[in-house]
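Hi Y.,

Following your request, here is the sequence exactly as I used it, all 168 residues.
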Amino acid sequence: MLKISDATNLAMHAMVYIAAVKHGDPVPVGEIAQVHGVSEAHLGKVLQRLVKLGLLKSRRGPKGGFTLGKEAGAITLLDIFEAIEGPVTPIDCLLTRPICDGGPCIMGGLLKSVYRQVFEHLSTTRLSSFVPTEGGDLEPCFPEGETCVTCAPPATTKPFPIPVRPDF
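Below is the corresponding structure, written out as tokens. Let me know if you'd prefer a different format.
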């Protein structure tokens, strides 16, 4: 099953934060780390991966920090995901060893369907869709009073699995 690691979650949220800064001013790593409740060292390593692939630019010095390497509208969540995790690949079987006889899957194609939906979401959702426009606000992920697991500050270094179905 596709998992979103702490590093990928942090990369996505840091990219949104950097994109939201007006006039493209460099955002110091310390500011981003403080906002997201993570160490500067961990965040710095994550952001450097994004710099290597051109998704971010870094500037050293007292007025240094990170800026987007491309326009927010040209960066997809898939770009960020693959910069940290590598290529998204489907997993055909939930079992970790090859014992499938090649017959019909007991999951009835559910895994392939979930993979397609996740891939489509990541590949079509642009960073710009999370950045408020002048005078506009973003809608919260959940109604007031509930917490979005993805948007909450990372509380663990364990990967966050993408749920197959919501809890009712």
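The chain has one domain: 3-159.

Thanks again,
Q.
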